[in-house]
Amino acid sequence: xxxxxxxxxxxxxxxxxALSDAASGRCWTFSELFMEGEKGDVPSGSILFPQGNxxxxxxxxxxxxxxxxxxxxxxxxxxxxxxxxxxxxxxxLKLTSGSTGNARGVAFTAEQLAADAGNIVKTMGLxxxxxxxxxxxxxxxxxxxxxxxxLLLHGVPLILAPSPLPEIVRRAMANATDVTLAAVPALWxxxxxxxxxxxxxxxxxxxxxxxxxxxxxxxxxxxxLKVHNFYGSSECGGIAYDRSELPRxxxxxxxxxxxxxxxxxxxxxxLEVRSAAVGxxxxxxxxxxxxxxxxxxxxxxxxxxxxxxxRGRATDQINVAGRKFSPExxxxxxxxxxxxxxxxxxxxxxxxxxxxxxxxxxxxxxxEVKAEELRQFLLHDLPAWQxxxxxxxxxxxxxxxxxxxxxxxxxQRYLNRTRG
Length: 420
Description:
By secondary structure, the protein is an alpha/beta fold. The protein folds into two domains: 2-312, ANL, N-terminal domain (Rossmann fold, 3-Layer(aba) Sandwich); 317-419, 2-Layer Sandwich (GMP Synthetase, Chain A, domain 3). The protein is built from eleven helices and 24 strands. The chain has helices at residues 2-13, 30-38, 55-67, 110-124, 141-154, 166-172, 185-193, 213-223, 327-334, 371-379, 407-419; strands at 17-21, 26-29, 47-48, 70-71, 92-95, 105-108, 132-134, 158-160, 179-183, 201-206, 227-233, 237-241, 253-257, 261-265, 270-275, 281-283, 290-291, 294-304, 307-313, 318-320, 323-325, 340-349, 357-365, 390-394. The strands form five sheets. Strands 1, 2, 7, 8, 9, 10, 11, 12, 13, 14, 15, 17, 18 and 19 form a 14-stranded mixed sheet that branches. A three-stranded antiparallel sheet has the order 5-6-16. Helix 7 (185-193) crosses helix 8. The longest helix is centred in the N-terminal third of the chain and has 15 residues, at 110-124. 43% of the residues are buried.
């Protein structure tokens, strides 16, 4: 089904440019890309593992589709996992980020992949005359669904940039008139701070982590560009998208449901997603949260006037003397302080009291600031029991390979530091 659709795209746009590789300077028309995908022997094995952010990634996908093999995209240098043979209808395995536990596979049928791509193209209004600039990982669910599938199933051209550095991104889009740029908040912050958001960007998208409204507003004020917040999950693809043309004023608001996606609040207070794009099952161990067209997220949420507001992850809640709260509440207030560039808040076991946590704030500051100043700042808006007791200042908060600030990773770093 997927390769047949690719053939239709090639027939329709045969002589148009499909793929540009800024690293090599090469371009391929749809016809040329098709011919490249037809060349060579397909590697043995039932699962192929396209890797990295290169033309070879795209060609591996096409060769797998042609040969009827399963795809499991990997980050550069990532070791291929060992899986038992997936269900016969499975054509694609996504590796989850592990943000809600250990990484595992999510199995998808061809119809489910195509449904997600169709929802994204329709909801976001992706256009052939606004090629995607590829700076995010093609292996991640976000990059695969927003960049790879629109190219191969809808004919939306792709420009591959070898690096997200501002000057390299500028060079990558040099021959384009208008582009779509999908990125993560950390990249939007870098480009904003470097005054490097090109006027060629007609559609700006941010996903992979919460987009701070301060950053969204700053980009809009400086460049006149609305960055659209996109919320999704490996298990079900796109969930919600902020269609508005003005910056949000509520940081908890992530947008309205994507086209052909319906949402509801489950008995636990977490968001439930229903659509034709929801994955088949977890693999190799199925889970109750996924199946039969329904994905039960771990995101606490409210639905207001048709829009989705997130209240944090159920798994991230901090327990302070029997009272629980989401760390995002503290982070949202802390990010309003002019000295704070990035921050993460988490709970660690309190050594004095069993089953009680100490609130810790990890902060990357723009300039020197005292913990007491930040504590007093928070007390204007938060009760004292939610204000961090421990403060950890770092020069820079690195993202993981998926472009996210991993709360679990930074919590472990803190624990290793204090124990060492």
